[in-house]
Amino acid sequence: FYLTPSQVNSILKANEYSFKVPEFDGKNVSSVLGFDSNQLPANAPIEDRRSAATCLQTRGMLLGVFDGHAGCACAQAVSERLFYYIAVSLLPHETLLEIENAVESGRALLPILQWHKHPNDYFSKEASKLYFNSLRTYWQELIDLNSGETTDVREALINAFKRLDNDISLEAQVGDANSFLNYLVLRVAFSGATACVAHVDGIDLHVANTGDSRAMLGVQEEDGSWSAVNLSYDHNAQNEREVERVKMEHPKSEEKSLVKQDRLLGLLMPFRAFGDVKFKWSIELQKRVIESGPDQLNDNEYTKFIPPNYYTPPYLTAEPEVIHHRLRPQDKFLVLATDGLWETMHRQDVARIVGEYLTGVHHQQPIAVGGYKVTLGQMHGLLTERRARISSVFEDQNAATHLIRHAVGNNEFGTVDHERLSKMLSLPEELARMYRDDITIIVVQFNSHVIGAY
Amino acid sequence: AARMFLRLLSDIQWRAAHLKWRRMTSSQRNTSTTAEPHPVSLPAQAQVVICGGGIMGTSVAYHLSKMGVKDIVLLEQGRLAAGTTRFCAGIVSTARPVSIELKMAHYSNKLYQQLEQETGVQTGYMKTGSISLAQTQDRLISLKRIASSLNVMGIPCEIISPKEVLQFHPLINIHDLVGAMYVPEDALVSSANVSLALATAASRNGVQIHERTCVSHVTIQKGRVTGVETDRGRIQCEFFVNCAGQWAYELGHSGEEPVHIPLHACEHFYLLTHPLKEPLSSSLPTIVDPDGRIYIRNWQGGILSGGFEKNPKPLFTEGRNQLEIQNLQEDWDHFGPLLGALLRRMPGLEALQIMQLVNCPESFTPDMRCIMGESPTARGYFVLAGMNSAGISYGGGAGKYLAEWIVNGYPSENVWPLDLKRFGTLQSSRTFLRHRVMEVMPLMCDLKVPRWDFQTGRQLRTSPLYDRLDAQGARWMEKHGFERVKYFVPPGSDLLDLDHSKTFYKPDWFDIVGSEVKCCKEAVCVIDMSSFTKFEISSTGDQALESLQYLFSNDLDVPVGHVVHTGMLNEKGGYENDCSIARLSKRSFFMISPTDQQVHCWTWLKNRLPDDSNLVMEDVTWKYTALNLIGPRAVDVLSELSYAPMTAEHFPSLFCKEMSVGYANGIRVMSITHTGEPGFVLYIPIEYALHVYNEVMNMGQKYGIRNAGYYALRSLRIEKFFAFWGQDLDAFTTPMECGREFQVKLDKGMEFLGQEALWEQKQNGVYKRFTMFILEDHDTDMDLWPWWGEPIFRNGRYVGKTTSSAYSYTLERHVCLGFVHHFDEKTGEELVVTTDFINQGEYEIDIAGQRFQAKAKLYPFSSLFTQRRRKDEVELSGYQRE
Question: Which segments constitute the PPM-type phosphatase domain (chain A) (predicted)?
Answer without folding.
Answer: 32-446
